[in-house]
Amino acid sequence: MTTHAVELHGVTAGYGLGPRRVTALEEVTVAFTAGTFTAVMGPSGSGKSTLLHCAAGLDRPAAGSVRIGGTELGPLGDDALTVLRRDRVGFVFQAFNLVSTLTAEQNVALPLRLAGRRPAPGELTAALAAVGLAGRAAHRPGELSGGEQQRVAIARAMISRPAVLFADEPTGALDSATSRQVLALLRGLADEHAQTVVMVTHDPVAAAYADRVLLLADGRIVDDLPRADAAVIAARMARLEVPC
Ligand SMILES: Nc1ncnc2c1ncn2[C@@H]1O[C@H](COP(=O)(O)OP(=O)(O)OP(=O)(O)O)[C@@H](O)[C@H]1O
Ligand SMILES: [Mg+2]
After folding, report:
1. What are phi and psi of 185, to 5 degrees?
2. Which domain of life is it from (predicted)?
């Protein structure tokens, strides 16, 4: 039997009420197999971040169900949901969400501290070194470039080795060399540690690192490609962006 790390069934989600209501996801059904790396693409506003937030238990959908590691999230209370997220999910936010008063190293340590774990000697240094930031441990977010902050957010999401790692445009602020380094790191999580990675990206070169590419348009999955090279992915994206 295939293990699904995350499953969404008929997920509908939106924002606001009444005439201002925006539907961001419409009846999305998709499953992510454990140990795979999926890229999620689609035009701006197509629902990619909303999909990640619902799949990670950060937002509750208006309809449908979400399971993480076989546990249905809907019936869980807020505390139980927080514990499940803490134990099984890592999230790299599109806006980084670092704590401005903490240093890079303290930000990376946060998920461990919240779980009541003391970092092993060298663990934080190694996590920062893995994203090329060994020399920035004592810097606060305000003293780091955008790309450096993004890499601290990636190190923080990876530190607790979550079963599922969601990353919302994790290479959006990075140059191509650093971006390749981060993508190889994400690829390694799936290949070497059987972690499940779901990454939003606008970049076909980044999506080509994934085992599978989901394309979203207007809150629906409109394509589901197996591993493909960047040119094939770019061609599929271009077809989506042509107004019909
Ligand atoms: N907090 C919010 N309040 C109201 N509408 C929202 C909110 N967040 C998102 N939306 C709307 O929901 C839709 C989907 O947004 P979402 O952030 O999921 O898109 P996205 O695909 O991640 O886009 P981008 O590539 O620009 O990050 C958009 O129409 C957006 O305007
Ligand atoms: Mg987004």
Report:
1. -65, -45
2. Bacteria
Task: Tell me the C-alpha distance between 10 and 103, whole Å.
Answer: 41
74-82: Cβ within 8 A, 24+ apart: 81/57
In terms of Cβ atoms closer than 10 Å to its own Cβ (0-12, 13-18, 19+), residue 39 is buried
Right CATH number for 35-47+87-241 from 3.40.50.10210, 1.10.287.3510, 3.40.50.300, 3.30.300.30? 3.40.50.300
The CB of 38 under 6 Å from ligand 1? The reply is: no
Contact between residue 164 and residue 198 where contact means Cβ atoms under 8 Å apart:
yes
Closest ligand to Cα 217: 1
pLDDT at 201: 97
**What are the distances in angstroms from CA 16 to CA 3, 22, 23, 57?**
35, 6, 9, 19
Locate the ligand 1 atom nearest the alpha carbon of residue 53 and give its number.
18
Please tell me the residue having the least CA distance from ligand 1 atom 27. 44
CA of 146 to the centre of ligand 2 (A): 17
Work out the number of other CB atoms within 10 angstroms of the CB of residue 214.
23
pLDDT per residue as tens digits for the range 200-209: 999 999 999 9
Regions in the chain scoring below 70 on pLDDT:
1-2, 242-244
**Is the pTM higher than 0.85?**
yes
